[in-house]
Write a structure and sequence with these properties.
The structure is a single chain. With about 425 residues, the chain is an alpha/beta fold. It folds into two domains: about 110 residues, Golgi alpha-mannosidase II (Immunoglobulin-like, Sandwich), CATH 2.60.40; about 280 residues, Alpha-Beta Barrel (TIM Barrel), CATH 3.20.20. The strands form three sheets. Strands 7-6-5-4-3-2-1-8 form an eight-stranded parallel β-sheet. Strands 9-10-11-16-13-14 form a six-stranded antiparallel β-sheet. A two-stranded antiparallel ribbon has the order 12-15. The longest helix has 18 residues. It binds alpha-D-galactopyranose. Alpha-D-galactopyranose (GLA) binds next to loops. Belongs to the glycosyl hydrolase 27 family. It is found in: Lysosome. Its main location: other.
Amino acid sequence: MWLQRLLSGAWPLTFILGLAVVPLQVRGLNNGLALTPPMGWLHWERFLCETDCQKEPWRCISEQLFMQMADMMVFQGWLDAGYQYLCIDDCWLAPERDANNRLQADPIRFPGGIKKLADYVHDRGLLLGIYQDVGKKTCAGFPGSKDFYELDAQTFADWGVDLLKFDGCYYGTLDELEDGYRRMSVALNRTGRNIVLSCEWPLYARPLTKVNYTEVAEYCNSWRNFADVSDSWSSVKAILDWTAILQNSLVPAAGPGAWNDPDMLVIGNFGLSWDQQVTQMALWCIMAAPLLMSNDLRDISAESKALLQNKEVIAINQDPLGAQGYRILTRWKKDSNFELWEKPLSAISLAVSITNRMEQGGPRRIEFSTTMLWKGTVCKKKCYITQLLPTRQEYGYLNITAKLPLWVNPTGTILLRID
Ligand code: GLA
């Protein structure tokens, strides 16, 4: 798809040639799904594996939690903003399979079973995601899918599941890991139901082998590369740095139907300052990441909600070109505490983020110029600059010789759209 668009003349040739990290070929899992990064809600980071509904009725992993989240997604504008997948993570299962080896939800916490929950979710226009594992057990120790890939794929399809997050704990050997992912992907396709497959294959395979992203993208709609996100700036920073260091292999793998997954958005929780929440949102959009929030939609500040629901920012993430953004080398090496990323958009536009990585002092000024962009060739004579974050502001046309002073808070980000 990338290649077709590039060759269709939608891009100036200088721009194409200047971009060493632009993918020349993307072959995503051929199920026609996730043509833009999946958006939704996933329980893990915020709710973990709380199974005691007596003591923790408000936050235990139960059908009630998901029904409440489904209602919030519809009535609080999340679905309208694009967040469609309501996803269950680990700890939904009963400790054993049933007499026919079929998976079953914990009967106390999910008395209606997953089918009933799927109906509830679908009735509201949402889609349901579920979690399983390629190995003998899930990471939290519940029954895994090993030896039951076909049966489990069929069970999920029968229940009306729309997305499977497929983890890699207890995988056995590398061959078993890779084979398990292939088999589950094929089995899901064979059910005939549209089920997005979200993998963790590269995360588990990386210590043992060089990850073949072409192959991963043939079997998965998205895949995790790094450790779990936590509710902290150090975690968000680490994910950004990892992604930037490996961008030459990660960026070409991404495209419609196939996404690198830097893990959940933790905006609206406890650990990130306002500026750090802006940074996570801006950079997850630049990275064309799945936007899967893990927060409590029943209790979220108006600011975090507005940030997560910002339609123009989401549009950067959901741009149909499906290009993953990348960190651009600075031409202002004397000041390496600013970090710039750019993401090509359709219609010959760019999204650009400017992060102040200094963790001391106050707002710092950067004299932004379009010549800082990759090879500086996207704007022929002048570009129209719109700031989308932290607040919306139109700066109008900027000549390529002109400089725009911008002030960025410590650990904060300015997100620009350049047309
Ligand atoms: C792994 C995954 C997490 C989460 C937990 C659940 O750590 O990477 O995202 O799914 O397992 O146990």
